[in-house]
Input
Amino acid sequence: MLLPLRSGELQKLIPAVATGNQFKNALGNPRKILQRIMISSIGGVITLLISQSQVASQFYSLWLIVGVGILLYILWGPIVEAGRINSNLRKYPCSALFNGQVAAIFTREKVENSHEQANKIGDLEIIENRRTWIFLELEDEEGYLGQICFPMEKAHQSIREGTRIFCLVLSDRSDFSTISAFSDAWLPSQRLWVGEYPFLLRPAFEELCSLRLR
Output
């Protein structure tokens, strides 16, 4: 079942400014955090050193502000990235609440990153870091709708075919003949949220489900 959202509901469910969960997700893995710290510290220090050489210049204040801004990149970088990700779903003109079930479940290995490393005889070989992803195929009374996927965790082992699932469906067409994107999803029977990225304000979405399906 697809229940089209009313005007303004999508913007209430997917904020323009990053939430705490979205900030944490956009912050990334330890390697990405380290990269942000290096950019922040090196870029900030260099810019502040330049500003000190411009004390007598009319551009001193500008250099100082830029330097502080770069030092704070570790904070505002993930906020900007999360806002950009949110905008990818907020831009769609048509959105609907999906009330359906999990039709099928399967897993697949995905390469998350790779790097070259010398082996025992000195030859370079590619080392791949793989992670198991779980795929959920969604359907309702009208049939197959699409699939969502995300990195598998221990809690996801309890998901079964036939489990009721709610999420947002985004499209460029008002009749939803083509589906462009899905949000993260909620499985109320297990009180479990799943998805690659936490798009939704979760308490607000749970409340919407209760009101629209009452």
